[in-house]
Design goal:
alpha/beta, eight-stranded parallel beta barrel, about 40% helix, globular, binds 3-methyl-2-oxobutanoic acid, binds zinc ion
């Protein structure tokens, strides 16, 4: 049923797995996509945009499997404005209990010029493709890409054509993050007023964050009558990203006095999803990020701390528990047993199989021996590392010793297991990380270039674990690896090896330059 402007319910459309995954380096594995889709479904996301089925065999397989496994959410796939894309999209989403086809074309003057279509030709193409999609599926979304830079008269004309051809949702994308809140609201109001049939369909808002206004623009569109917000976890997405799911959902909850609209999102699942998306995409969440940043609920200044101790509402507009953040933060001590670990992990959103729990338990004990206090964040980093760095990978770090300090050159001595066989080597480098990476390169020669090397401390203190994320590029294929350890050099080396393991899988599955999305928005 359409969510029209006269209703108070706002649909949440999550595109982490399509628009989010499109950000260079954020590529996720098949299993990771299934896991994230499962979590989104459990959280109450109304529509999951699971991918772009024509883009690659991998995208197609992921969308089909997500569709098959979906429980509550509608599963949507993206398709350009041609029959081949739309047919392929339908083949993937049709397995869902509730499938949707999302087809789009760039309607602004700049985008019309690329396929070199006149206004009339493009209008005809929209009529044909939306009609085709609607003949396959009774839930069709249509988007005029770059809508915020499209002439108003033409936008009204093409939206009317799409509605007449059977589109049930019309999405108005601010593709380049160009609009601002007042204008965003006026655009939706203008369409609702001028387009015949607009009151019978759902308007969606899809905002990019190039000027930092995506969330505000989305909410302004809702005030004007949009009833579907398109967003991603952590605001993941190309360039400056998209509207962040956690921001719009919490804003609608906290400011319900002036934004009297509701979603069906279980907000207590937000933190877990944010952490998982950060781990699998390799995109570290900035500490001061709204809602899910590490500092979002920390109070540093004396005045703030004093106020919070007297009345928490003086400086907090929402509770950490609202997003699933546990306040009693010290997790466990070195005497805690397996059952306590299992129950703690369950509380944090993880239900592990027995063998995985055993592995995490061994690592937890080792960590508790090295570290004074083991926090929730430490456990989360351990589990994430366990899930990312599978024991059956081609390359595994068996042993590492480094010599570092003021007197160079720094040295590393390593045993790397390659397909079950141990190889020993030592190398020097410009610093211990460089020396360790040189060992890996000598034992496993490759031409991947290091694009990103990022280190973050999981908790405070000099004994804190470090999480390291490494992005590599080889022939246009981008992969991200991550790892955590109290030893920063070990974490760095394992993150590098994790990225190489992903590269090996990627080489087998995709042609060179596949990540540089050889598919174009206008190509057939
Ligand atoms: O930003 C955009 O315009 C898009 C479309 C494909 C909807 O992501
Ligand atoms: Zn987009």
């Amino acid at each position: 049923m359409a969510q029209t402007a006269d209703q108070p319910r706002v649909l949440i459309f999550d595109t982490t797995l399509r628009d989010g995954e499109q950000s260079p380096g954020a590529t996720m594995t098949h299993e990771e996509k299934l896991e994230i889709a499962g979590l989104l479904d459990e959280m109450g996301v109304d529509i999951i945009e699971a991918g772009f089925p024509i883009a690659s065999e991998g995208d197609f397989a992921a969308v089909s499997e997500i569709a098959r496994r979906s429980k509550n959410s509608t599963i949507c796939g993206l398709a350009r404005a041609n029959f081949k894309d739309i047919d392929r999209c339908w083949e993937a989403v049709k397995h869902a209990k509730s499938p949707r086809i999302h087809t789009f074309i760039g309607t602004s003057p700049l985008h019309r010029a690329i396929p070199n279509l006149t206004m009339d030709e493009m209008a005809e193409r929209i009529h044909e493709t939306v009609t085709h999609a609607r003949n396959l599926c009774d839930n069709v979304q249509w988007s005029p890409m770059d809508a915020t830079r499209t002439e108003h008269d033409y936008l009204c004309r093409v939206v009317e054509i799409a509605i007449k051809a059977g589109a049930t949702t019309i999405n108005i994308p601010d593709t380049v993050g160009y609009t601002y809140p007042f204008e965003s609201a006026k655009l939706i109001a203008m369409l609702l007023e001028r387009v015949p049939g607009a009151d019978k369909i759902t308007f969606a808002t899809h905002c990019h964050n190039d000027l930092g206004m995506a969330t505000a623009n989305s909410l302004a569109a809702v005030e004007a009558g949009a009833r579907q917000i398109e967003c991603t976890i952590n605001g993941l997405g190309e360039r400056a990203g998209n509207t962040a799911l956690e921001e719009v959902v919490m804003a609608l909850r906290v400011r319900n006095d002036i934004l009297p609209y509701r979603t069906q999102i279980d907000t207590t699942k937000i933190m877990h999803l944010s952490r998982r998306v950060s781990t699998v995409s390799g995109f570290v969440v900035q500490p001061n990020k709204a809602i899910v940043g590490k500092n979002a609920f920390l109070h540093e200044s004396g005045i703030h701390q004093d106020g919070v101790l007297k009345n928490v509402e003086t400086f907090e507009i929402m509770k950490p528990a609202d997003i699933g953040l546990n306040e009693k933060n010290i997790a466990m001590g070195k005497h805690s047993g397996r059952a306590a670990l299992r129950s703690k992990l369950k509380e944090l959103g993880y239900e592990l199989a027995d063998n995985q729990l055993n592995d995490v338990f061994v690592r937890f004990k080792a960590l508790a021996d090295r570290k004074k206090e083991v926090y929730d964040e430490d456990l989360l980093a351990l589990v994430a590392d366990e899930q990312t760095n599978d024991a059956h990978e081609h390359l595994q770090l068996k042993k590492l010793r480094v010599v570092c300090g003021t007197e160079g050159p720094q040295e590393a001595d390593m045993i790397l297991t390659i397909d079950g066989v141990d190889h020993h080597i030592d190398a020097t480098g410009d610093g211990p990380v460089d020396a360790a990476f040189n060992c890996v390169k000598m034992l496993f020669p490759h031409k991947a270039r290091l694009q990103v090397y990022q280190v973050a401390a999981v908790t405070e203190g000099t004994d804190a674990q470090a999480t390291v994320s490494v992005r590599l590029e080889e022939d246009g294929r981008l992969v991200t690896g991550s790892s955590a350890d109290t030893d920063t050099i070990v974490a760095s080396t394992k993150a590098y090896i994790n990225a190489l393991n992903r590269l090996i899988v990627r080489r087998q599955k995709t042609a060179p330059n596949d990540d540089v999305k050889t598919i174009t928005y206008h190509g057939e």
